[in-house]
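Late entry, evening session. Most of the bench is empty. Finally got around to the prediction I had been postponing all week. Sequence below, unchanged from the version circulated by S.P.
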Amino acid sequence: MEDLAHIGFSSVPVITLGEKSISGVDLAQVAHLLGLEFDANPRLDPSELVERLDLFLSAIQSVTPQLSSNVLNKRLPGRDRTVLELLHHTVEVAQPVTGKIETLETDPANVHSESDTPILIDDLCGRIERTREELKYPPNDWQSRVKTFYGPQTRHQVLERCTWHVAQHLRQLMHFVREWQPEIRGWHSEADYRDLPLPNNIWDD
């Protein structure tokens, strides 16, 4: 494993092993490169994933108004991104499920969205509310395939990816906010992460 390295390219992670490099956002390619087995089928059915995604958004909706301006404007360790910007990005990540897959999932910049434009806290809360409302009427063609920047996927696979992506950022927010403003209430339970393909680490510097 000495030859394994991560390098940045246009905000999209790249995995290099020896002389071969692949996109780090395509988990099937990563597994193939490393000689690992990979099952691309989500472990949770769509209704459970939608329920989890709404639960995570509900936690963000509860926590966000409690955050002090000092915490909202605090930059995350090792990142050029504030808590408010991460909140904005996290809600944005959920939106492909509500029918905007073509505009978000085809753009590799949305892996990190370093160019996110900060918005007012009231606007953020409104966006969370609208996204949760739209989740009440999800697509019903979960096995249909769509084009994404990491290759063709079923809508079920995109739903899972959006759900664990939101969950991972929520883990990060909870980790740091509990240190910076421990009196905050309304976090979800860590048991709600079960069966989601989350990274082992909450944060990599």
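Two things to note before I forget:
The longest strand covers residues 4-9.
The chain has seven helices and five strands.
Will write this up properly tomorrow.
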